[in-house]
Every structure is written in structure tokens, then in C-alpha cells.
Amino acid sequence: MTSPAHVIRTQLPNPPPPIEVLLKTVHAAVEDLKAKDVVEIDVRGKSSVTDFLVIASGTSTRHVKSIADQVIKFAKNLDVMPLGVEGEREAEWVLVDLGDVVVHVMLPRVREFYALERLWTVGDQRPDEPVTEDDRG
Predict the structure, then answer these.
(1) Full domain range(s) for residue 38
(2) pLDDT per residue over 115-134, tens digit each?
(3) Which compartments is it annotated to reside in (predicted)?
């Protein structure tokens, strides 16, 4: 006596959107909630984990969390599910991993302390460019 086989219907996921579309969507999300000092850093060739970092500041922990939530909401509209979200509880620094783009939303004091922009742009300056006060920290 055999039972009939159960058929499980599967569907291949939609292909991810082009990176330009994902970046544009991330920028729209952070701008929608008035994030401060938004910076995009191309880390292709420097990181095997992601292609772009988007770093933004919020004015309070509530603002930081709201901006990160908006990034997630806008990404889901593209059928992009975050690979991970870290730091939501404290909301001083929330990381949203969208694969090709990783978004960091931080309080200004946390952003200044960790200085991700400097960390990921070291060596990008041409040797013939003068060093400014901003570069020295």
C-alpha cells in the first residue's frame, strides 16, 4: 500500500535588481526620513562581502531605527530581503545588509568614533593630492 506523493510547488526567486536600482532605492529611503550626511562608498576590490557602503546619520536613536526600518521597507518593495539587520535594540548604529549594499545608520558621535569613511577610503587619495586638515582627523 503506497500513498500518493506530495507535490511541492516552488518558484525561483526574482533576480536581484541591478545595483544602481538598489542604491537609488537606499538613497530614496534615507532621504525620505531626512537622514544626515549620507555618504556612498564603493568598496569593490576592497571587500569580498559587499560592493557599496551607504553611511548615514540620525539625530536620535529613534531616528536611527526609523531610517533603518525605512531602508528595509523600500528594499522589500524591490523584493530584496535583508540578509541581516544588527543593532536595532540599542539603535546607536544599525547595520542593514542588503547583499551588494550594506547600509550603516549611526548616531553622529558613534559615526565619528568609528570613522568608517576614513577606514574604507584609505589609499583612495592620489599621492599628488595635498593632505588637508580633514584627512588628518
Answers:
(1) 19-122
(2) 999 988 876 655 555 555 55
(3) Cytoplasm
